[in-house]
Amino acid sequence: MRTCKTGWIAGGLLVATLLGGCDVPERVPLVPPPDLYRASDEPGQSDPQASGETVAREENLKSEDRKFPGDFEAWDAYFVGDTHVGYSHITVVGGEDADRSDAKKQHVDLNIEDCLLINRGPASAFVQRHSHQSSETIDGQLLHYKSHLSVGPIITTCEGTVDESGLNVVKTRGAAVSTHRFAWSDEHRGLLAVEESIRRSPLRIGQKRTFQTVSPIQPLATTVRLHCVAKATVPLIDGKPHELLEIDVETDLGEDRKSYHVIWAEPDGTIRRALYPASNLVTYRTDKEVAVKDIESQQAAIAIASILTNSTLERPSETKRVGFKLVRTALPIDEEKSTIQPQPNQFVRKLDDASVLVLVSRLGETPRNGFQQGSFLVTDADQKPNAIIDSAETMVRRIAQASGGSGKLGERELAIELARSANRLTQLKSSSDTFQRASEVARNAQGDSTAYAVLLAALLRAKAIPSRVAFGFRYQETPTPRMVYHAWTLAFVDGDWLSLDATTGGIAAADRLTVTTSDLSNQDIGEVMMPVLDFLGAYEIEIVTSATRY
């Protein structure tokens, strides 16, 4: 998979808005030169005036036909260079009353599902998934929508509803909820506005069109400008040249922020290809088999986010002492701060070649030779319930009480028993649709490693044991060895922090790197998780067996 220059790709029809939704580092806005979209590797582009094809000035004033043309389904394949990196699936279906005379009852349901595999650096990757469901009138006016975006471990949802005076949007990430309100009118469109506008009322050469819509995740109102500039001969996914109409798309995000992409479509409005220059992402309209080929298997290998390693680790779940050598491949956003820090039971030593040696130990030792160990004092936030670790909730307290046995266990034994209980009571999923509160995990009895870690943290606090959640990467035995995103729990027992993993039901093995820890009193989980995404692409990782001598 090729890496884009910025290190970040946001994909598909929503490329202009997803980056802001996940709060990744902003890139410089792209201001394309006039001929940017007519690249030299796409021959046969023609000037509409040179070919005698002109459009009268009044053509741009022609009323747009917004009538619903019928149900619609499409698959797109995402490519960066020659590498297949994802897909999108779109369905547009008229509601029960879409063919009746009562306009107030007429509606159209739209659904978008996409998956994008993103490389950040030569050995790091994460998965971005987006789903969007919306309801619109038959002439394209938005009624309601709900969007869900997962970027690696960061999950964001937005839900918007149009009423008589505006658009109300509720954005949720972790337990953080924000509300937004926008002025709205019948002229505003839904989230699939570009595709639906071109499909319902195809553009002709020289014709321009402007409308307003909403980005699904940020959220914010945007202005979209379409301009059908020429006929162009471009290759499609079959590699053969096709003569299509070229449409420039400018999305104005406000505050002098604009994004650009180009679409190639048939004269009847069928979109066949799109290019997003800022990320070098190209989409091709195709069928399901081609769109999803090999993507699901690659996604399973990457998990949520992962980093390839240069060596293997034998019996990782049994390890008590592991050395990792981290070679810097990119500067961190904050150049004065390394993205790997000493943590409890994690010792860090900077080497002369600017690489870092990390020793993870469960042996209660204090290595010498320049290793530094991190530690932090217990705070009130490590002990009290909060919106995510809701340890005072009835279900959580009941589980904690039942797991405590006769009450004769010491702190360490009790903490380990709580880890076993969390493991027994919960079914592990590879990923989760939401960042769940501890009480939700207890009730649903399933979740990913983050859900396990949050539940265990709550059980510990319910038994008066301070706790934090650790976020980082754990070794995974696959045909290609890699460190995958993982979360576990720190418990403060007997005067020290003990690493526990509810996914295995006991003391955490030394097969992992801690990137950050949190008491999760900050409800915006995106801020908590950003160091994990920053770590991707920052280092190459080698497992150093000789580190056991330190």
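(ticket continues) Second input and output from the same batch:
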Amino acid sequence: MDASAVRERATDLPREPGVYQFLDGDTVLYVGKALDLRDRVPSYADPRSARVARMVDRADAIDFAVTDTETQALLLEANLIKRLNPRFNVRLKDDKSYPLVQLTDHPVPRIEATRAPEEAATVFGPFTDKGRVDTVIKALRETYGLRGCSDHKYEGRDRPCLDHEMGLCSAPCTGEIDADAYREHVESAVRFFEGETGALADPLRREMEAAAQAQEFERAANLRDRLDAVESFHGAGEEAVADRTDERTVDVLGAAVEGDSAVVARLHSERGQLVDRSRHSLDAPDAEDRVAEVLSAFLVQYYAERELPDAVLLSERPADDDVLAWLEAEGVAVRVPGAGREGKLVDLALKNARSGPTRRDELAALADALGTDRPERIEGFDVSHAQGKQVVGSNVCFVDGSAETADYRRKKLTDRNDDYANMRELVRWRAERAVEGRDDRPDPDLLLIDGGDGQLGAARDALAEVGWTVPAVALAKEEELVITPDGVRRWDDDAPHLHLLQRVRDEAHRFAVQYHQTLRDDVSTVLDEVPGVGPETRRRLLRRFGSVENVRAASEADLRDVPGVGAKTASELAARL
């Protein structure tokens, strides 16, 4: 796309806040935000760096979505970048005025707030309140012992630093915690930043209650203030939907009809934040009220195999009363707002509906790349454990490219340190239930295994043993190679079909780790039964030894070396565990 094409496209953009995307065919190259779309986009006609020049030269189209405020544009941009992983957003150069949180690309990642993240780091944000970000990072470090030191200070240490003595770091540099346990703590931090507030709020609340019971009222008050900051963290910023506290998810639908075609724009909000948008093309019906007919058809077809939101806001009342009766029976609030905040949201959906057709089809691209039928339903599998203990498996489901959480399943597996055998057991469990008619879910079009050739081979062995004929592929981490029965495939980093498999794989991994950690938390309560072991001492024991099993195996002398564990407590631990 040359300079004149950029300027020409910009003249069609509205003078409103929003998010813009540079596209190369179906691939999103870059996502940006603007207070005024028409003013911002022309600046790309004269790129400010060689990297941006390469992006513009490669792009062949510009897409956009309007928002009500700049804050909404900021939050939508951040969520689209996280979901789409555009190639030219790796450094988030347009967000230097906002704080970000990064977990570095290191075997033992450090956590820090930054405005210039490292290229390979895992980045969350941007956020609008630096003070709240700092509070949350400190709480995460105290709870999970994540390091904050530079790589230079981390290397070559022979004794823990002051951060360890202050309870801010678990000291992986000197082996005070093993690598597997540290990675699990990093996963807990990731879960928090991805929206699972309880991953941090729950342990903070337990600490606060313990401090209050011990009459440590100043500490309890400090923990209370920190808990307030943590619980409000994901709700920071201007609200994108009406403040109905009982409606956590809201979809806003606007429909536009022109000629023989129709477009429905969907804005999706979670916990008051606009997190996604999509546009969908339909054939326009031959009816008197075509918009109402389009909405009726869309509601039934789109939500028939998806999890319903708590509320749906519509630009018009659907033509079919049976559709409304169905939604009401399912507990979905349906409203056609005419004014106020909800009315403005419907106006935004209408503006997006009138801006053009749907952008891309990841499923069609995946079918072409694999040489299969269109995989409408994909199920992902992963296994999580700690050195063969508390082994669990996850089975997640995506329908038409979106997570279908109602069809998620999980399973406790046999304890053993054998990833191939664990995957074989997990897939065999799913296959047997399907073949015997004990699983009420439809058969998937594709299985995605988290792992490499070994895990895929184990899964295919299980399928063959049971006789369940469902195609399966694997996605290996590190190099992101797609393993198929016919060989290994390396797709472009910005390929939309690779992004789809990555989303399924990452969700399977998250769900497995979450279940594994739940089981570990249940087991760790045995420490609470030992006199003298409170939440702080328990956390120190787990940081030092990594797991309850390792605490059991530790000698009484080793237990006495843990700060806060006296001779009497060490003796009790050795006797009881």
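Agent notes: Confidence is low (pLDDT under 50) at residues 90-97, 236-245. The two ends are 68 Å apart (CA to CA). Closing as not reproducible unless the customer responds.
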